[in-house]
């Protein structure tokens, strides 16, 4: 069996020698420590499971190793191109549980698994004739997504669930769902339509996206009900934790100070409690794909930087959809287009049972306004940390939304009872 210390040294040398440039790591990541947590294989070749500590957090990885001539040790990450056998060895060494376990076992017996290079925060692979896998990179419990696929089985709003690969401690290493043929994200479709000047088509697509979100919420509410209620005080506590987390990235900027105060002011006017439900948690146009003549929802991991927690309120998903639309029309001169797409999306969502409940209670529309602005602030912090060239869009949106929030809160203070009426007008369909 390969020596753990030698493997850790070789992994560290590999990553430091390449200068870490992987999509699943933040920009300018610096390796602090590589810890081998398990070895699958023999003394001459196999796979080493590792947890990698970076200044930005802990990430999981797997490395194929070979010992040449009994001395020279070489390692390569199993998701690199041309390391198909390393991926197969990794998956064979993990336990699999799920409705398609027989098909997965047969595929691995034939060595039919290969990595896929995608621009995402985890690593993807294909398995057998129709399986699509996702190897989770973040350390810690990542069973959330598997639970969602369990509860959405047969709903028609998500890809079919095949099962998951498990570490020896029972935690999820990778998830497998059906492979969607020629999927195309709603983001790409909408962008192409707008490039071609097809505003009617883009508005129709926005309505479909709102409908898909409503169907997702209705499906989760039926199969996985949550009777929890959230009080306004809990929302204010959650907000303070989020603001503190954003401040680590944004510092003492005017944007954070202005938006933070507007959010606090509106939060102080909210009257609850508000009903919880299980939500996507990171909903945007890129999480909807056209496949099988339908829009399907993908990626139920929640926010990449959840911070204070998910806060399971459906208004957060709706806010994510609206902010994603804002990326399609980021400039001030795009206000007409932005309103057209927003109204269309809200119309589609309002037709669902979940949407009907939100639009029937104006106070919940004020909560939607709150979460839309908070989402823009989250985006500004996220883009600043990971994609600095993309900060202009959320920064401009934050100025617009913070101004609206302050207007809502000020009106509520001057005229008690006016908050809900103003919120209804803000999100009029």
Task: Write up what this structure looks like.
- The chain contains 14 helices and 15 strands.
- With about 425 residues, the protein is of the alpha+beta class.
- It folds into three domains: about 80 residues, Roll (Nuclear Transport Factor 2, Chain: A), CATH 3.10.450; about 100 residues, Phosphorylase Kinase, domain 1, CATH 3.30.200; about 240 residues, Aminoglycoside phosphotransferase (APH), C-terminal lobe (Aminoglycoside 3'-phosphotransferase, Chain: A, domain 2).
- Strand 1 and strand 2 form a beta hairpin.
- Helix 7 packs parallel to helix 12 and helix 9 runs antiparallel to helix 10.
Tags for this model:
Aminoglycoside 3'-phosphotransferase, Chain: A, domain 2; Nuclear Transport Factor 2, Chain: A; 429 residues; alpha+beta; Phosphorylase Kinase, domain 1; 4-stranded antiparallel sheet; single chain; 3 domains
Give the topology string: H per helix, E per strand.
HEEEEHEHEEEHEEEHHEHHEEEHHHHHH
Please identify the structural class as seen in this structure: alpha+beta
Q: What's the structural domain tally?
A: 3
**What fraction of residues sit in β-strands?**
15-25%
Question: What's the architecture of the largest domain, going by CATH?
Answer: Alpha-Beta Complex
Strand arrangement, major sheet: 5-9-10-8-7-6
Given the C-alpha coordinates, what overall shape results?
Answer: globular
Would you identify the CATH H-level superfamily of the largest domain?
Aminoglycoside phosphotransferase (APH), C-terminal lobe
Radius of gyration from the CA trace?
Answer: 23 Å
CATH top-level class of the largest domain: Alpha Beta
The number of helical runs is 14
How many beta strands in the DSSP annotation?
15
CATH fold field value of the largest domain:
Aminoglycoside 3'-phosphotransferase, Chain: A, domain 2
Main sheet overview: 6 strands, antiparallel
């Amino acid at each position: 069996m390969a020596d753990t210390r030698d493997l850790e040294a070789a992994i560290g040398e590999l990553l430091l020698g390449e200068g870490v440039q992987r999509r699943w790591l933040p920009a300018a990541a610096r390796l602090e420590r590589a810890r081998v947590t398990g070895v699958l294989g023999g003394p001459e070749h196999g796979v080493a499971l590792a947890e990698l500590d970076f200044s930005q957090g802990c990430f999981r990885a797997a490395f194929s190793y070979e010992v040449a001539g009994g001395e020279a040790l070489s390692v390569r990450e199993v998701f690199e191109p041309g390391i198909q056998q390393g991926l197969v060895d990794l998956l064979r060494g993990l336990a699999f549980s799920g409705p398609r376990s027989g098909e997965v076992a047969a595929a691995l017996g034939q060595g039919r698994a290969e990595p896929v290079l995608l621009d995402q925060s985890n690593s993807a692979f294909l398995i057998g004739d129709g399986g699509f896998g996702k190897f989770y990179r973040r350390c810690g419990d990542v069973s959330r997504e598997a639970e969602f696929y369990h509860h959405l089985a047969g709903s028609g709003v998500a890809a079919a669930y095949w099962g998951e690969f498990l570490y020896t401690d029972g935690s999820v290493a990778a998830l497998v769902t059906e492979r969607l043929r020629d999927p195309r994200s709603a983001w790409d479709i909408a962008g192409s339509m707008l490039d071609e000047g097809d505003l009617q088509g883009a508005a129709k697509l926005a309505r479909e996206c709102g409908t898909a979100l409503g169907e997702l919420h209705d499906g989760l509410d039926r199969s996985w009900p949550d009777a929890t209620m959230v009080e306004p005080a809990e929302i204010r506590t959650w907000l303070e934790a989020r603001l503190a987390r954003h401040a680590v990235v944004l510092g003492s900027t005017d944007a954070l100070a202005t938006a933070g105060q507007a959010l606090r002011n509106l939060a102080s006017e909210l009257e609850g409690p508000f009903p919880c439900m299980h939500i996507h948690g990171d909903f945007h146009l890129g999480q909807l794909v056209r496949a099988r003549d339908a829009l399907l929802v993908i990626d139920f991991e929640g926010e990449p930087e959840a911070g204070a927690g998910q806060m399971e309120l459906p208004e957060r998903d709706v806010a994510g959809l609206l902010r994603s639309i804002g990326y399609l029309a980021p400039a001030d001169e795009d206000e007409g287009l932005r309103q057209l797409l927003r109204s269309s999306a809200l119309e589609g969502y309002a037709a669902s049972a979940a949407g009907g409940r939100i639009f029937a209670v104006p106070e919940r529309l004020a909560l939607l306004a709150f979460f839309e602005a908070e989402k823009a602030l989250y985006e500004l912090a996220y883009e600043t940390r990971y994609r600095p060239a993309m900060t202009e869009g959320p920064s401009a949106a934050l100025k617009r939304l913070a101004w609206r929030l302050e207007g809502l809160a000020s009106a509520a203070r001057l005229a008690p009872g006016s908050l809900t009426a103003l919120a209804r007008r803000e999100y009029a369909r």
